[in-house]
Amino acid sequence: MNSYRQYRAPVENGSSLIEPPLSDAADLLRSNVAKSASHGPFWDSLRTRARASLIEDAIRYTSAYRDTSWVDAGSVGPIVMAGHQPSLFHPGVWFKNFALDDIARRVGGIGVNLVVDNDVASGSSIRVPSVRPHGPTGSRQPHYEVVPYDEAGGGVPYEQTTVRSRDLFDHFDKAVTEAVGGVVDEPSVTKLWRHALSAIDRCGVAGCALAQARHGLEGELGLRTLELPLGVVCRTSAYAEFVLAILTELPRFHGCYNDSADRYRGAHGIRSSAHPVPNLAEHDGWFEAPLWIYGNDSPERKAAWVKMADDHLIISDRVAQRPRELRIDVRHPKLAAEQLANLVSPNFKLRPRALVTTMYARMVLSDLFLHGIGGGKYDQLGDQICAEFFHVEPLPFMVISATIQLPGLTQADHGQQTRSLRRQLRDLDFQPERFGDRVELDQKLVARKSELIAMVAEPAEKKLSSKKQNSKKQWHDEVATINAELSKQLGPLRSQLRSELAESERAQAAQRLMASREHPFCVFPIEYLQTTYAKLLSHD
Known about the structure:
Elements lengths: L14 E5 L5 H13 L3 H22 L16 E6 L6 H17 L2 E6 L9 E6 L12 E6 L17 H5 L1 H8 L9 H15 L2 H15 L4 E5 H4 L3 H11 L2 H19 L13 E2 L2 E10 L2 E12 L2 E5 L8 E5 L3 H11 L5 E4 L1 H12 L2 E4 L1 H18 L7 E6 L10 H17 L12 H15 L2 H6 L6 H17 L2 H24 L11 H14 L1
Parallel strand pairs: 2-3, 2-13, 3-6, 13-14
Antiparallel strand pairs: 1-14, 4-5, 7-8, 8-9, 8-12, 9-10, 10-11
């Protein structure tokens, strides 16, 4: 049975997960460089061309919105890479970008963040903690407020999220600041959104603007990294060659992919056939590829399907009405890669699915890849697929995350209070005599219950010889009757405890809400995050 590492988010506020530790990063990178050198000429050639394009494109892309004069394009050293969707994620995810800068400096290399803009956007808003009056009573109890930056409802890849409402986008920072007022005084969204407004004028796409805004703010904070959208990487001939290495042997890749996914599900006791990834399908001679097809004129992602016809590879989305298709002559691999790279267009985008994205990023583009917790879990499946299909040892990665809560939270133990109140409410029914010091109870009933309890405590011989000994059922029925009568006398106390329990549960829920690690980084004060990140990176 395969052994899988289990990565879990840190529990304590201000704590991090860094595996292996930062002090091992340089050794891990050197080991990866040595391993990649043994992979053979196909990989050597692919890496050389892909990395040259990566650095050239990343400098060109990044220089459009922040300074890149610090980069020596002719001598960049090893490449450390991270990646994430262009969203307003929580501070534990953003910590990875600060670690990217730190590790790249430690190893004398360059950090490149890959913007995974082919993932589907879940919407165009964020949830933020708020204490503004809400509901019919105008309660100031902590709650979530949804703050939109656009009218779009999601459902398309981030690179297709064209902004529909400039008014919402332009005033997003003010809306967030007002919503979190009383929770956070100076949210970082104010500084972030100055960069976002410049970015949206350049690209008009929300995903692009959010990524450039965050990266622009990182530059303002002194981080030295480059950034590049996955969509740009996918235009290169090196990427096309990598994709064709899979597609020209897709039936064999199917076996490696599906068998590995089945083993992963079996090892984790997962019943859902869609988790962590669904198996690739086959139908009427078409093989489903680990790729997506979409375009500007039809931005919804469709599965890519492939079949061979003589010496040509047909790539199609198999949409019934107007299928998108490419035909690639694969008799000469290098020419086929050039042909594929030239045929993809704004209306035919061929993008990798998650496991192939990180496979290319780790095996081709970088010397050391930094995953978050989710990526670290699922890319162990990617390692199996890579090893079985390409017959090479996958390069190990690091997993980095952190738990950071809002500043200034009080840590009252509402959970203990809630448990105590629930026990008291239960005792009202089963041990009502305990509340005789708070409510005047029928003392005859209290005394009779004491007698019954004492009878249970008598020695077994005495109980058996006593003529007045009740049967077990009679004893139980009498105790239950007494409990019910005494419990009726506790009605006002029951109402009071229920009210206190409801308030305690509301306070406990509010505390959980406020203490969540999932709040968007843009609601936190920037100085607070900087200080916390610096401590975490220095303590590892």
